Amino acid sequence: LVVLGIETSCDDTAAAVVRGNGEILSQVISSQADLLAQYGGVAPKQAEEAHARVIDKVVQDALDRANLTEKDLSAVAVTIGPGLSLCLRVGVRKARRVAGSFNLPIVGVHHMEAHALVGRLVEQDLSFPFMALLISGGHNIIVLAHKLGQYTQLGTTVDDAIGEAFDKTAKWLGLDLRRSGGPAVEELALEGDANSVKFNVPMKFHKDCNFSYAGLKTQVKLAIEAKEIDAKCPVSSATSEDRRNRADIAASFQRVAVLHLEEKCERAIDWALKLEPSIKHMVVSGGVASNQYVRVRLNNIIENKNLKLVCPPPSLCTDNGVMVAWTGLEHFRVGRYDPPPPETEPDDYMYDLRPRWPLGEEYAEGRSDAR
Ligand code: ATP
Ligand code: FE
């Protein structure tokens, strides 16, 4: 089996070709970093246009680098949600054109399921049931994966995701936004004292597995204002005292943001083991999982509970086509796919897009009113 995966749910246009045994034949990504810096975030219309400009080339490059043509493919997998519908549409249209022209089945993929299942590509003995903590720009969820396509959501964010908090912190600290905010904060935090600024750990007294990052964001903003940090002045031009203040805030923010993950993870593991005592692994994935400090801290918690942490390499934690191709493969194998679409479809064809699409059922004890 060989599957082409296409991903356009947010600001990265990605494609990859993966073999049934998990061999990655190619991986191509085109990111909209310049646009992000210009608009200070993802602007759907601009993002859609940027995807449309590069999608043909990204897919062609993925095939070329794999030394394959469309005729060699078994199926095409594409993210159909959750994400921005304008952006999702570009990937789905392309996937259906390729599938229609070459008579290939098509697999619609859940972006967050893909972030989780890529763990099974990097760790061959990772079998169901397992846990997954998915931490990215738009999501902060902890799930119990019972079997393929069947998930229980133990916790989610009640407001912002941790990646959003990293991105805003980066912006307010005047870090270079031509790369995403997370890595910039992580790098600056290395220079700072993580105990110097006192931030409160969110939801300290909630006995659930939910997350909240909006309050921490506000705390960071206030700390930045108190130190009179000017976001328009880049860190590279800051005085040494100013730079030190920024690094202290970055490090203190990162410590508390991750402490919140640690506390909720611990409780979620206890809950999950009651439901599925045979769990052995916890996957930590999504863009924020490429953070080294996050990895080390979560590894401690997870090992203490006698589980094994599976954290994909950074290139497979942030958005990528490999996870989509792999998730497509998993579903294709068990017969979950759509037949090849017609060779031509009208431009206004109503694609099955799922901009809001929860991953599994919410666990009753997980509701935020359980205190
Ligand atoms: P979602 O998966 O929720 O739809 P997304 O697809 O935009 O969101 P990803 O590409 O999975 O998100 O992750 C991007 C997020 O990860 C950004 O918020 C970015 O700042 C964050 N991130 C990336 N690298 C790091 C890092 N080293 N430290 C902290 N955060 C990071
Ligand atoms: Fe993502």
Structure summarized in a few sentences:
The protein is built from 11 helices and 11 strands. It is an alpha/beta fold.
Word description of this protein:
The chain is an alpha/beta fold and 371 residues long. Helix content is 42%, strand content 17%. The strands form two sheets. It has a six-stranded mixed beta sheet, with helices on both faces. α3 links the parallel β4 and β5 (106-110). The model has no long low-confidence stretch (mean pLDDT 95). Bound molecules: adenosine-5'-triphosphate (ATP) and fe (iii) ion (FE). The site of adenosine-5'-triphosphate has 23 residues, from α5 and α6. It is found in: Mitochondrion. Its main location: mitochondrion. Its cofactor is a divalent metal cation. One of its GO terms (cellular component) is mitochondrial inner membrane. Keywords: Acyltransferase, Metal-binding, Mitochondrion, Transferase, tRNA processing.
Key features?
five-stranded mixed beta sheet; 42% helix; binds fe (iii) ion; 11 strands; globular; binds adenosine-5'-triphosphate; alpha/beta; six-stranded mixed beta sheet; 11 helices
Unreliable stretches (pLDDT < 50, length at least 5) are: none
Describe the global form: globular
Strand order of the largest sheet: 10-9-6-7-8-11
Radius of gyration of CA atoms, rounded to a whole number: 21 Å
Please describe the biggest sheet, giving its number of strands, its sense, and whether it closes into a barrel. 6 strands, mixed
Average pLDDT for all residues: 95
Strand-residue fraction?
A: 15-25%
Count every beta strand, where a strand is a DSSP E run of 2 or more residues. 11
H-E order: EEEHHEHEHEEEHHHHEHEHHE
